[in-house]
UniProtKB/TrEMBL annotation:
Species whose genome carries this gene: Paenibacillus glucanolyticus
Keyword tags: Acyltransferase, Transferase
One Pfam family, short name: Acetyltransf_1
PROSITE patterns: GNAT
Protein's name in the database: GNAT family acetyltransferase
Length: 164
């Protein structure tokens, strides 16, 4: 799947994207956006967890600037209609519509694959992400109260979903 709007291209991740995706993860996933900063031990470790084709990546003038990852939440046949998402956009490219384009692209891909529900998790300490997901049509479906203790305070883990 490729979509082009202005100078942003969205396509499935490829092997050549691994280093850029690892760098983006290290930049975006910190104590404000995740229970613990995300650090990959090696390119092989990254590729084992995030093989090519398991993300849609956004390229701005051929530079990788964001992704939305997707995976089945379990290996159960009865749960195969659900995809779990995670999304990251480089801070210098945020608030430019790239995240919205990634979410719309993953919705389109999921519909084509017969997926009927998208889900994700977001920390209560991340109001910008909460607002973004709500603007993309996601609804809160649950909350794990004081699920994490981050930087001296308890943080809720909010479960959100979108039905296709």
């Amino acid at each position: 799947m490729k979509t082009r709007q202005e100078t942003v291209t969205i396509r499935f991740s490829e092997m050549k994207d691994a280093v850029s995706l690892m760098e983006l993860d290290e930049l975006v996933w910190d104590r404000n956006t995740a229970p613990e900063p995300l650090k990959w031990t090696s390119r092989d470790h990254y590729l084992l967890q995030c093989p090519p084709g398991t993300q849609l990546v956004a390229l701005y003038e051929e530079e990788l600037c964001g992704y939305v990852g997707f995976r089945a939440p379990t290996g159960l046949h009865s749960n195969r209609h659900v995809l779990e998402l995670n999304i990251a956009v480089h801070p210098s490219h945020q608030r430019r519509g790239i995240g919205k384009r990634l979410i719309e692209a993953v919705k389109e891909m999921a519909r084509a694959e017969g997926i009927t529900k998208l889900r994700l998790r977001v920390l209560s300490s991340n109001p910008g992400a909460l607002s973004f997901y709500k603007n993309c049509g996601f609804k809160e479906e649950g909350r794990l109260i004081q699920e994490f203790y981050v930087d001296g305070r308890y943080v809720d883990d909010i479960l959100m979903c979108y039905f296709l």
